[in-house]
UniProtKB/TrEMBL annotation:
Gene3D superfamilies hit by this protein: Immunoglobulins
Species whose genome carries this gene: Phaethon lepturus
Protein name: Interleukin-11 receptor subunit alpha
GO cellular component term of the entry, any: membrane
Keywords: Glycoprotein, Membrane, Receptor, Repeat, Signal, Transmembrane, Transmembrane helix
MF terms in GO: cytokine receptor activity
Presence of keyword Lyase: no
InterPro entries on file: FN3_dom (IPR003961), FN3_sf (IPR036116), Hematopoietin_rcpt_L_F3_CS (IPR003530), Ig-like_fold (IPR013783), IL11/IL27_subunit_beta (IPR053073)
Organism lineage string: Eukaryota, Metazoa, Chordata, Craniata, Vertebrata
Classification via PANTHER family: INTERLEUKIN-27 SUBUNIT BETA
Family: Belongs to the type I cytokine receptor family. Type 3 subfamily.
C-alpha cells in the first residue's frame, strides 16, 4: 500500500523464491509491505516500510568494451552503455565507477565518472588488464549495481590497426612489426630538464644579487672609516703651518 492508501499485490516470481515485484511503482514514493509467511504450524506477518529511492539498485551497465590506444603504451579506452532496464529519461541519470587492474595483480584501481567512456592513463605496458564497471543513481540514491561482466585488453606500443569490437570480449590491435618509438617519455624528461634549468637560473641570480649587495655594503662601510682619518691628517697639517712660519 502506498501513502495515498492504494493497495495492490506484490507479485512473486516462482523462479526467484523470497522475492516479489511491485509493478508501476513510483520513484519518490513510500510503500508499506505486508509480508506473510504460512506453514502447517500457522502463519506470521511483518510490516515493512520502504522508500523507493532508498532501495533503488540499477542493473549493471552493458556493452563494456576496452581498447588499446595506438602510440599510447600506458592508456586504455573504456566505453559502455546504460542498462537496458533503466528509464531513458533526462532526469534519471546514472553515474559510474570503473575498476581495473593487471591480470597478474590483485588490487583494483577505482575511478568514478558521469560519462559513458573513460581513458585509463596508468596502465602497464604489455600487461593484460581486466576492467569492470557498475552504476548508481546520479543523485546518490540507493545502491551501486553489481559489477558488469569483465572485459580485457593489453596496452601496446607501435602503430596499430583496430580490430572489430565485440562487447565483453578481449580487445586487440594488429600492430606493425616496426614499433614506433614512444615520444611521450622524452617530452616529459625534456620538460623536467627545462624546469630544473629555470629553477637553477633563478637560484644563481638570487645568489649573485645577494653577493653584489654585500660587496657594496662592505665597500661603503670601508669608505666611511677612511674619511675621519683623512680629515684628522689634514687638520693636523693646517695646525702645524703657523708654527713653522713663526720660526
Amino acid at each position: 500500500r502506498n501513502r495515498n492508501g492504494h493497495a495492490g499485490p506484490c507479485l512473486q516470481d516462482p523462479s526467484r523464491p523470497g522475492t516479489c515485484t511491485v509493478h508501476r511503482s513510483e520513484f519518490w514514493s513510500s510503500y508499506r509491505l505486508n509480508i506473510t509467511e504460512v506453514n502447517p504450524l500457522g502463519s506470521s506477518f511483518r510490516l515493512l516500510d520502504i522508500t523507493m529511492q532508498a532501495i533503488i539498485k540499477p542493473d549493471p551497465p552493458e556493452g563494456l568494451v576496452v581498447e588499446p590506444i595506438p602510440l599510447a603504451p600506458r592508456r586504455l579506452h573504456v566505453s559502455w552503455k546504460y542498462p537496458s532496464s533503466w528509464p531513458k529519461e533526462p532526469h534519471f541519470q546514472l553515474r559510474f565507477r570503473l575498476q581495473y587492474r593487471p591480470v597478474i595483480h590483485r588490487s583494483w584501481s577505482v575511478v568514478e565518472t558521469v560519462n559513458l567512456s573513460e581513458v585509463i592513463t596508468d596502465a602497464f605496458t604489455g600487461l593484460e588488464h581486466v576492467v569492470q564497471v557498475s552504476a548508481k543513481d546520479f543523485l546518490d540514491a540507493g545502491n551501486w549495481s553489481e559489477w558488469s561482466a569483465e572485459a580485457r585488453a593489453t596496452p601496446v606500443r607501435g602503430a596499430c590497426s583496430r580490430v572489430p569490437r565485440v562487447p565483453g570480449a578481449v580487445a586487440s590491435l594488429s600492430c606493425d612489426s616496426l614499433s614506433v618509438p614512444d615520444r611521450s617519455e622524452p617530452l616529459e624528461k625534456m620538460a623536467v630538464l627545462v624546469s630544473l634549468g629555470i629553477f637553477a637560473f633563478f637560484v644563481l641570480a638570487a645568489v649573485l644579487v645577494v653577493t653584489i649587495l654585500i660587496w657594496l655594503r662592505v665597500r661603503k662601510h670601508g669608505k666611511d672609516k677612511t674619511k675621519p682619518h683623512s680629515f684628522l691628517v689634514a687638520a693636523t697639517h693646517l695646525k702645524a703651518l703657523p708654527s713653522e712660519s713663526g720660526c
